Amino acid sequence: MMKLIAKTSSCSSSSYCRSPRGMPFLHFTPLVALFHSLHTMPSKSRETHLGNRPWKPKVSNVDDALKVFDELLHRRPLPSAIPFNQILTQLVKLRQFETVLSLNRQMGLLGITSDAYTLTISINCYCRLNRMEYALSVLAHFFKLGLEPDVTTFNTLLNGFVLRNGVADAARLFSKMVEGGHCQPDVFTFNTLIKGFCAMGNNTTAIQLLGKMDERGCLPNIVTYNTIIDSLGKHTRVDEASKLFSEMVGRGIAPNVVTYTSLIQAACNIGHWNEATRLLFEMASQGIFPDVFTFSILVDALCKEGKVAQAKTVIQIMIQRGIEPNTITYNSLMDGHCLRGEMDKAKQVFDLMLSKGFSVDVHSCSIMINGYCKGKKIDQAYKIFKEMPRRGIVPNTITYNTLINGFCKAGRLQEAEKLFSEMQDCGQLPNIRTYDIILDGLCNNQQLSEAIELLREMEGNKLKPDIVAYSIIIEALFKAGKIESATDIFSGLSSKGVLPDVWTYNIMIKGLCNGGILVEAEKLFRKMEQKGCSANGCTYNTIIRGFLNNNETSRATSLIEEMRERGFSGDASTMELIFDLLSKDKVDPVLSAWLKD
Fold it and tell me: Per-residue DSSP letters for 15-71?
């Protein structure tokens, strides 16, 4: 096995997420009837009456904007900054940030004095280009020109920090803004900060900011509540999200489709289908019709429950209501078919997306590749992978990990290794999950020495092995009969700053039991509880089978009683072993009595 570490650097692991399964999606038929009975609500126009405003250039593209800008430059006398600002604003909407900054410099060279609005436009452009140091220098320029930055200027800077994940910098600027008395924060100021804290998962601070708004007499709006409700839902804090929803309604702020969609998503994420259904009915009763995002959440939830036929019905309702399913909708449907092993139907959805001109993305391809790999159709998976560059799609780490895992599971290690090298050559950095996959592939294909070599290389690299990597190696060592080596690695985990989890302890207990080292197995079983790692049903079943296999039925019986008290039960392998011993009259009378209970 070649040296795999050479090209790597540390990056975070990624994995697919799955919602809880096995809970019924209730009231589906009446829900369909409800959707059919509703009339599609006409969307309110976003346009406002302009009235008799001053000259406003008609700009629909960059060339138009540059032409009007040039005309303004040739006027004599030169206009003030106001008409130029209007052109710059249109270019910002077209995301031509570099062009705006260049034109602004031209204005300065011609002696056109920037006003506060011009400088705020420049700050916005620098923020969008992730050049915050320049944005801050423009703020200093305000004071040189004798101008006072207003709340819009500060909001623009705050948003720039939030866009680059600089929430701490945004919070410091907010404090200076308030303490310096430059201007009073408005609802947009608070909303920007709240968005930043929610994006980093700090919902507690976001809620505290909501309280600060009341203290400062700044009324929160629907955006404020929607942002926090959505973030709470994504972090499974559903009760708090519901409480905030009630508070919002109590303050006379009417929920909208975004509010309900966030709450429905939160309910679906934790398998609360009754609550999701209730929210849908409540939403409809308020005259709020689901949009493409709401419907896509429903499709995803149904597909994860294996209810693909019902998901298709939802898609039909969408189409009938004039709501076009998007890539996310069809990705969920594809994934639903893949989960059921219906790869032909998943491919039909994939082809339908292409025929409709939808943007098939990296997630679409990764879903198909994962489905084919799970179905042991590696060549079809690889075909999808090879087609990605032709479609202008760049495989990401998840894509590579999925296919590498497929090759490893199929015993095609050379192809897995080739793909691993290709991954790095294409600029996709392997993550810890990539290495865990390769370690597992090596161990399962009788290449334990290569796996240990790779582990040692990882230990000497910035990408440190995680507990999954060590557990894979420990299990492989036990299977190879190298009990001492396995226990040595386990004993050294604490010195490496790696904590064993319940899976690791289960591997150790099973290995020690299989080796007949029952005393050490039981010591470890008790030690894991002391270390704060609670035993699960698998742990109990593993050690009970270990004692039964070594004719320690009395000790096994004691552990069975303990297992029952903890709310666990014997699995199929344990019960089979007990019944086998019963047939040979080798079971302790106490154990026989337990079986009759």
Answer: -------S---TTHHHHHHHHHHSPPPPPPP------S-------SSHHHHHHHHHH
| C-alpha pair distances (Å), 511 with each of 147, 300, 439, 561 | 74, 40, 19, 23
**pLDDT above 90 (res 584):** no
Residue with tokens 């994995």: 15
Q: Which residues contact 504 (CB under 8 A, 6 or more apart)?
A: 467, 470, 471, 474, 490, 493
Quote the CA–CA distance of 68 and 543 in Å, as a whole number.
81
Cβ(232)–Cβ(241) below 8 Å: yes
This prediction's pTM: 0.73
For residue 340, what is the DSSP state? T
Residue 31 burial (10 A CB sphere; 0-12, 13-18, 19+) = buried
DSSP state of 74: T
Gap between the Cα atoms of 436 and 420, Å rounded: 13
From the list 356, 354, 307, 546, the residue with the least C-alpha distance to 332 is 307
C-beta of residue 491 within 8 angstroms of C-beta of residue 475: no
Confidence grade of residue 53 (pLDDT, cut at 50, 70, 90): very low
Q: Which of 170-179, 233-242, 522-531 has the lowest mean pLDDT?
A: 170-179
**Token pair of 256 as six digits:** 């909208």
Average pLDDT, integer, range 218-234 = 96
CA distance 111 to 322: 53
Characterize 348-375 residue by residue with b for buried, 16 or more Cβ atoms within 10 angstroms of its Cβ, and e for exposed.
Answer: ebbeebeeeebebeebbbbbbbbbbbbb
User: Contact 363/330 with Cβ under 8 angstroms?
Assistant: no
CB 411 within 8 A of CB 447: no
Q: What is the pLDDT of residue 422?
A: 94
Q: Which residues contact 566 (CB under 8 A, 6 or more apart)?
A: 535, 540
Would you give the distance in Å from CA 434 to the centre of its chain?
A: 18
Q: Provide φ and ψ at 2, rounded to 5°.
A: -65, 165
By 3-state DSSP, what share of the chain in percent is helix, strand and coil, each rounded to 5?
A: 70, 0, 30
Query: For the chain, first and last CA: distance in Å?
Result: 54
d(CA 260, CA 211): 22
The 3-state DSSP class for residue 163 equals: helix
Token pair, residue 399, equals: 């894509």
Measured CA to CA, the distance from residue 383 to residue 538 in angstroms comes to 39
Q: Check if the beta carbon of residue 208 is closer than 8 Å to that of residue 240.
A: no
Three-point CA angle 6, 11, 13, nearest 5°: 115
CB of 102 closer than 8 Å to CB of 65: no
Residue found by looking up tokens 């705006």 in the block = 100
Residue 148 CA: distances (Å) to CA of 56, 137, 154: 26, 14, 11
Question: Residues 306-360: pLDDT tens digits?
Answer: 999 999 999 999 999 899 999 999 999 999 999 999 999 999 999 999 998 888 9
